[in-house]
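Hi Y.,

Following your request, here is the sequence exactly as I used it, all 207 residues.
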Amino acid sequence: MRRSVVLWSLLGALYLGLRVWYDGGGGPLTPEEVARYIARMEERGADPARLEKLREFLSGDTGSEFVMANFIHFHERPGAREDLDRYMAHMYPQLFRRACHPVLGGPVVARALDSWGIEGGERWSMVGLVRYRSRRDLLEIATNPDFADAHAWKTQAMQQTIAIPVEPFLNLATPRWLVLLALVTAGLGLQLALRTSLAAGPGQRPQ
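Below is the corresponding structure, written out as tokens. Let me know if you'd prefer a different format.
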């Protein structure tokens, strides 16, 4: 019985640690942080219209996770998709270390079936959804000087793009429950192995 308690305590602590890392976005941005990130984007040459939208997005921070829905139309030239792959090769390490990750991605198989009030909004090459732990994580990536050179691959790849942040009230694609299921399955398997080992030992009974 003692071994089982230790086993499940360790697995519980592991899951708690993973949840703290996965959910720990640091709370809503403070006004000082918003001003600092806006200043960094100004230094990188962001245009005033984009800065105003960004300021509104950051000032309304709730501290919750969000998903960025990316609609992408590649340049009509060979190698455009490969340029985006080069950009993402730099992006993935930045994402994963902050518990951010893709949720869905794939090529568009037809023009938009329903569209109005949007000029040039019918034709897209692919759609990607990326989960961000927080708005702070997004800006830490976007303003990282080491990441600036890689951004050129993105602009070379895309002729047109729209990025829309969504704060989900329902997210069935979260890995939280998959990790929990994996740990519970592993725990049951290890517990069974322990009991079998003890039962097989001389003069030992299953705990």
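Residues 176-200 form the longest helix (25 residues).

Thanks again,
Q.
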